[in-house]
Design brief:
By secondary structure, the protein is α+β, with helices and mostly antiparallel strands. 39% of the residues lie in helices and 18% in strands. The strands form two sheets. Strands 3-2-5-8-9 form a five-stranded antiparallel sheet, with helices on one face. It has a four-stranded antiparallel sheet with strand order 4-1-6-7, with no helix packed on it. The longest helix is centred in the middle third of the chain and has 42 residues. It starts with a helix and ends in a 5-residue tail after the last strand.
Length: 300
């Protein structure tokens, strides 16, 4: 039994409301409302849907979702385990327990490693004693000749070995030195305009960003994927508009096909299905000419 589901049902009956009336006010299908009152939140398409549907339900029956219901919802519906089987939950718990055990044993391993390092250092210090080295340095006296001995050696040298000294020619310092011509800095080059080929290359490298506007005429759930990269779930309200930035295409799953209109440039796309009819895999693709088309096949 779900305590939260029983509370929702009793509050609805206290307000004398039927599931059909709440479905009309919130644009949420009756089977989803029955899941809320049964506490079967994980049967919803996603955690975001369960959270959003419950918030809209509480507004209709007069419950404070933020201060009263949110804590009860968190106890019965866990975001981390949403949509997972019991086997997958047990595997995740085992992984967390094993990682925590490894973390607890980590200080012991570090202590043993430090202790082993200290032991190796002590053994190395004790086994490598400094050897005493003695070396005898012999000094030889340096004999410097006296001035008399130098003069006698110069006088005894043969005359042929003495090179005559040629006086240097005097330098005329009266000649004026011509000043060097000043070097002018080069003129700056004018900036070149980008060529057509460079503009084409830049356009090919940088993907063009396009914008489409989603306009909603009724409350409904929406799943939006952009360029096969980012995906977002949200609950759209009547009168709300949302701008989508994309490069090549975007995909929409919606719970009420008649509640959305898509504008791109001067064109407007509507009529994707009946009232409150859920539709999936609506792809909107823009070709090289900038024209957008609708398809049910995911582009490459």
């Amino acid at each position: 039994m779900s305590v939260l589901g029983d509370l929702l049902k009793s509050k609805r009956m206290e307000q004398k409301l039927t599931l059909e009336q709440i479905s009309t006010r919130t644009a949420i299908r009756k089977e989803f409302l029955e899941m809320l009152e049964a506490g079967e939140f994980e049967r919803m398409p996603s955690y975001v849907h369960a959270h959003g549907f419950l918030s809209h339900y509480c507004k209709v029956v007069g419950l404070d979702f933020a201060n009263e219901i949110k804590s009860m919802f968190d106890e019965e519906c866990h975001k981390e385990t949403f949509g997972k089987t019991p086997e997958e939950v047990e595997i995740a718990k085992s992984a967390v327990q094993s990682s925590s055990s490894s973390i607890k044993a980590l200080p012991v391993v570090i202590f043993l490693a430090i202790l082993a390092l200290i032991v190796f250092v002590i053994i190395g210090v004790l086994s490598n004693k400094p050897a005493e080295k003695t070396s005898a340095i012999q000094y030889q006296p340096i004999v410097t000749p006296t001035i008399e001995e130098n003069n006698a050696a110069v006088a005894a040298a043969p005359i042929d070995n003495i090179s005559p000294t040629i006086p240097a020619e005097p330098v005329d310092q009266t000649e004026a030195v011509e000043p060097a011509e000043p070097i002018e800095p080069p003129e700056p080059e004018e900036p070149r305009e980008p060529t057509v080929a460079a503009a084409i290359v830049d356009a090919a490298i940088k993907p063009q960003t396009r914008q489409a506007t989603l306009t909603f005429t009724d409350n409904c759930w929406v799943n939006l994927m952009i360029d096969n990269a980012s995906s977002v779930d949200f609950i759209a309200e009547s009168g709300q508009s949302r701008v989508v930035d994309f490069s090549k295409y975007f995909r929409i799953n919606i719970g009420n096909a008649s509640a959305i209109a898509i504008s791109y440039g001067e064109r407007k796309y509507t009529g994707f299905g009946g009232f409150r009819q859920p539709v999936r895999n609506l792809f909107f693709v823009v070709d090289d000419s900038g024209n957008m088309s609708q398809t049910r096949i995911q582009p490459n």
